[in-house]
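[Automated response] Your request has been received and processed.

Submitted sequence:
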Amino acid sequence: MALKPEGVYWLTIIDEVEAGKLWRASMATLRMSFKHVEFLASTEAPARSANSSPEEAVQAEREMRRIAGRQVYVIYASDAPLDERGLREKNARGGGPLSKPTFYTHVVSDAVLQPFLDQEPGVILTDQYAPVDNLMAEVFRRRNKQ
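Generated structure:
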């Protein structure tokens, strides 16, 4: 992949964290080439604490299910770290009186993703091996059962 030193590669995928294989393969592949790879979801990951009340724990689990369900995810890859705060500030300034902030994604921490990656780290994709249909098969099977 040819990018300028400050270049950014954004990959948009539809997958499912729990059963999905495409996001895992994408993360594994991109981590081979880039110093910084971030997984973004439209739902913010819940903060978990050892001192959480039972109600907070239930809410955190409910939020985790929302993140883990099938949705559109974005993967950021670059040799420069993601400046999420800078993107939010720039977006909040907008481009005119009718523009609205549209940066709705949140970085999902490695701590949240790691248990899923430990179960199955993901295959490395290449020009000769990129079985996207096969990687998405389980997500489509699960969707058809709902």
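Summary generated for your ticket: Residues 49 and 135 are 34 Å apart (CA to CA). Residues 8-145 form one domain.
If you did not submit this request, please reply to this message.
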